[in-house]
Design a protein that fits this description.
By secondary structure, the chain is mainly alpha-helical. The chain contains four helices and no strands. The longest helix is centred in the middle third of the chain and has 17 residues.
Length: 87
């Protein structure tokens, strides 16, 4: 494990770890990545890193600005935050 940690540090990669025994720290991001893979990745072939990066950038913009969620009162995340600020 020390060799792995050293290799990360050598390549300026910072390891993200939750507190011991707490599996909920990453659940929000894991949920997002699962939704993203279902909606824009599975069944699509990307022929270059740039193609994939562009698709991810477009999806994140769509997710934040256009995609509505029932939990947010049928608003997008951006609309929901703006609505909270206006209240």
């Amino acid at each position: 494990m020390k060799a792995y940690s050293y290799k990360l540090k050598e390549n300026k990669i910072f390891q993200s770890m939750s507190r011991k025994g707490n599996c909920h720290d990453n659940s929000v991001m894991e949920n997002f990545f699962g939704i993203m893979k279902q909606e824009m990745y599975y069944g699509v072939v990307y022929y270059s890193y740039e193609q994939l990066k562009e698709a991810i950038d477009k999806y994140i913009k769509y997710y934040n600005e256009k995609r509505i969620k029932e939990k947010l009162g049928w608003m997008s995340p951006v609309e929901y935050r703006l609505n909270l600020l206006a209240a």
